[in-house]
């Protein structure tokens, strides 16, 4: 077979196509600006892909006594809801929002409890509480008065309806320096127990300021200044902020000095409003006599001697008035005398009222024959008849 035959055979059986390869043009890359401290992309991706549960957390935010983050979260949840029980790994038990310590944990020093209303106010610092409330003797009496209250009265009144269980405490502007110190100490202790330790710590500086004011301006200026500061702390403000009362407050000091001077209190070394002192009969809030204030606000009920039900002796028999009906009224109706045969006449008598003749209270009571029986007039008539005979 020659070469020509081979080419002819191959061309007759198959066809050959020629394809042109097209290479796409490369895009022009813009120059990338250089960064001073470039962040590697590999490290950023690794940080995002890490599991957050494996990241180390701040143990200072964990629940006290918790050994893991999971246990701390469960403890916080039960304390917030106040429902459920959790036995921690350290032996403590959390039940319905209360923590039962394990081991040899000691109880803290007991404080005389406040009333429910005072406890709510102190926990929120929403209203002012008089300083003389924080007195051990008064708190014990108040607790006893609360325990003796009946359940019926508790249903009628809510927790804040009645703040004091018994009598109200004495006015705080009548106490001396020694009593003030004891009350402030107990006041700070109750603040700490209600979760206001930073507030109680600042009151330590306030106590030092009051002691200095007592030496410089007298006790009444210092006491009024302390009262103004505590009123500013124990209230809600618009911006929710409280000034640094651990330092001297110039505005409140000027107000306290002005009030003390207008009430003539500056020259007294002790409290003049205390019992037995020169101004014991004067109200320290208004500088007016207590008697006039008490008389103007109190009403003493007086007995109406002219009342039909009055027991006054001048109103006749049994206190029913001075008229004839008032003196001799026996409770029957006005027209019953006609049928009662009270005046010895059977004209209006009936079987129904015949039995009432013996109980008649008429001064001229007579028998069926018309003769007076018993009574003063009956005796006089019998005496006259005896003389005639």
What does this structure look like?
The protein is mostly helical and 389 residues long. The protein is 40% helix and 2% strand. The protein contains 14 helices and three strands. A three-stranded antiparallel beta sheet has the order 1-2-3, covered by helices on one side. β1 and β2 (93-95) form a beta hairpin. α8 runs antiparallel to α9 and α9 crosses α10. It is extended, with a radius of gyration of 49 Å. Residues 288-313 have a biased composition (Polar residues).
How many domains, as an integer? 3
- Tell me the overall shape: extended
Low-confidence stretches: 41-55, 293-300, 317-321, 340-344
Report the strand count: 3
**Average residue-wise pLDDT:** 74
Sequence of secondary-structure elements: HHHEEEHHHHHHHHHHH
Tell me the β content: under 5%
Question: How is the quaternary structure best described?
Answer: single chain
Straight-line distance between termini: 205 Å
Radius of gyration: 49 Å
Structural class: mainly alpha
Looking across the biggest beta sheet, what order are the strands in?
1-2-3
- Count of helical regions: 14
Largest sheet: 3 strands, antiparallel
């Amino acid at each position: 077979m020659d070469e020509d035959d081979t080419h002819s055979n191959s061309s007759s059986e198959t066809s050959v196509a020629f394809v042109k390869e097209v290479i796409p043009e490369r895009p022009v890359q813009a120059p990338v600006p250089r960064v001073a401290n470039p962040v590697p992309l590999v490290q950023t991706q690794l940080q995002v892909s890490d599991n957050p549960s494996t990241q180390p957390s701040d143990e200072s935010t964990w629940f006290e006594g918790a050994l893991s983050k999971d246990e701390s979260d469960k403890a916080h949840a039960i304390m917030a809801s106040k429902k459920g029980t959790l036995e921690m790994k350290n032996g403590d038990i959390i039940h319905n929002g209360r923590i039962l310590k394990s081991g040899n944990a000691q109880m803290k020093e007991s404080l005389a409890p406040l009333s429910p209303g005072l406890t709510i106010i102190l926990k929120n610092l929403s209203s002012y509480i008089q300083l003389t409330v924080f007195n051990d003797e008064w708190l014990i009496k108040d607790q006893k008065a609360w325990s003796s209250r009946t359940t019926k009265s508790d249903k009628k009144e809510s927790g804040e309806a009645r703040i004091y269980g018994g009598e109200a405490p004495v006015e705080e502007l009548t106490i001396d320096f020694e009593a003030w110190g004891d009350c402030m100490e107990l006041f700070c202790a109750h603040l700490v127990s209600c979760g206001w330790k930073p507030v109680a710590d600042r009151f330590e500086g306030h106590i030092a300021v009051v002691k200095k004011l007592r030496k410089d301006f007298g006790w009444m200026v210092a006491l009024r200044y302390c009262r103004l500061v505590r009123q500013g702390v124990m209230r809600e403000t618009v911006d929710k902020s409280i000034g640094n009362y651990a330092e001297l407050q110039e505005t409140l000091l000027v107000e306290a000095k002005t009030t003390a001077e207008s009430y003539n209190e500056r020259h007294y070394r002790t409290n003049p409003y205390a019992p037995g002192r020169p101004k014991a009969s004067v109200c320290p809030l208004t500088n007016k006599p207590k008697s006039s204030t008490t008389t103007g606000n109190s009403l003493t009920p007086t007995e109406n001697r002219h009342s039909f039900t009055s027991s006054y002796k001048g109103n006749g028999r049994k206190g029913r008035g001075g008229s004839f009906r008032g003196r001799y009224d026996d409770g029957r109706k006005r027209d019953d005398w006609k049928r009662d045969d009270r005046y010895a006449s059977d004209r209006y008598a009936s079987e129904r009222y015949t039995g009432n003749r013996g109980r008649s209270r008429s001064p001229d009571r007579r028998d069926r024959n018309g003769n007076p029986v018993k009574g003063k007039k009956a005796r006089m008539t019998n005496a006259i008849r005896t003389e005639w005979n």
